[in-house]
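Provenance and format

Records in this collection were gathered into a single text stream. Each protein contributes a sequence line and a token line. The two records reproduced below are adjacent in the stream.
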Amino acid sequence: MQTMRDHLVNPMRQKMTLLFTVFLIGLAGCSAAAPVLGPVYIHMNGANMFLESVIAVRPGQPVVFVNEDTGIHMVLGYNPLSGKTNLHFSGTLLGTPGPTQPVHTYTIHFNHPGIYYYYCPVHAMLKVAPGNIHVPFKRPTVHGFGTPMAGMIIVTNDPALIRDNPPSSHHKVLPGYFTG
């Protein structure tokens, strides 16, 4: 036979159990983190060029510059309208001693959609082009393919642009790409 106390405790216990369950479900929802975005890689070697000169990433996704060359390279962001460089988008990558050694990298994240331009000031320099726009030009004394060592990163949520990244941008080290 139920007593008055049992009659009052059971509904109270049911309410507490319900509240605790809702609390746990809420915690589970809060602890589910957004998917971690893997890095997108931009490679450089002795040809003095960025292999993936145009890539697209999602906001916050890591962009990793990889030096598979024995020589030093730099990455410096700039504004093509003003020619001003962006010291927050600036990295130096020492040369890698050989193909079996760990590569030197520089990682950056862009949190806002937009287009971010960069070049290697060791191998290119900014000049004013027609239309009063600043563009990288190959330094006259630099060997390589004759094009300036420069590129652009498109930060977007457009999945079609991101899918168009070259397959090499998904791998940190490219076998057979190392040169010195």
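Adjacent record:
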Amino acid sequence: MYKEILKNILFISFLMYLSVLSAQDLNSEGMIDTSNNTNCSCCSKVYSDFDFWIGEWTVYDTIGNRLGKNSLRKIQDNCILQENWIGDSGTTGTSINFYNKIDSKWHQVWVDNAGNVLKLKGELVNKEMVLKSELFKRENVNVYHRIKWSLTKEGEITQKWDLLNEENEIILTLFIGIYKLDE
């Protein structure tokens, strides 16, 4: 009987949610348009810490070879920074980046077209976004993944992805990308 009551409550809640949705104006992407909403849950300054990454970017290696394109935009009423990567080598990936007010950290969940998943968390440190994984335990070595994004005075972004040992020392740099904003 308890399960039946719970199912009914959930169903009624879902119907109420749908009725609220149908009363909202939708934007051209089919998302709820909250541009006139003065009650924004994700509009405080900390939710803008990663906004320097927003835009349409072409990414190069350190010697100027093009690596791919990256598109970043805010979605879900400013609560999520969504990344869509298209690499020139055929790799693609998407990340969802968000500030979690419960632990006061930025989080990233990355998934690529090979099924790889990387979860990171961190914060803005000295005008640089620094996100790090939990410890990956391997047979031969335990490592952390750490990615840093920094805005240069030229308006470019440098992204550096390192593997760290348990003492937080760099053991391998996996990627350095120079982001140039598309005109």
